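Hi R.,

Here's the input for the zinc ion complex you asked about:
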Amino acid sequence: MKGKTHAALTLATIDIYMEITTKTSIFDNLSNENVYFLGGIVLGSTFPDVDLAWNRNIQIQDRSIFQHRGITHTPIFLLGMIFLWLAYSFINPTFESESYYAILYPCFKGFILGNLFHILQDCLTKLGGPLFFPFVNINKKVSLSEMKSCGLVDFAIFCVCFAFLIFEIYQSKGFIVNNYFNGIQANIETIKTLINFWY
Ligand SMILES: [Zn+2]
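And here is the predicted structure with zinc ion in place:
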């Protein structure tokens, strides 16, 4: 799957889950924390494919853990990152009171969640994902369909999810453009009141 498909499908899935469980959209709450969380989701859901970049630039043995859909596509990699985070918090007790923690923590949570969704989504394609590494060889991938990455189905999924997200943003309470139009309307009202007052 393309990066944009991963990002759109991940946001749409989490949004539908929230709509069902809490009847709110991920775009309803535009607090700083939630915006960092959403940013983290987008980063995390596109991150695992960095392995494509290093596979293009360096000669990597085909069946090593650094192949495409290798180590960055395993749940154990996520556990490793969580472990590092916890270890760092343990070594550095002032971590949570640092000014950047309020940005980093929601971003990290979103990153892990987005990354996990990327791995699961790759398992829906023909090439699959190494879901059970290191218990199973990294070349034994879980693949649930014959869908090809970057094909027509990939593009269709992106279009549907993207359209859905635009609809959800438009529907959400925190809709920025809505506020912007309300702002213009308020200004027009003020001008009208002034005109009425003067004439
Ligand atoms: Zn991938």
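One thing worth noting: The CA atoms of residues 4 and 159 lie 10 Å apart.

Cheers,
M.
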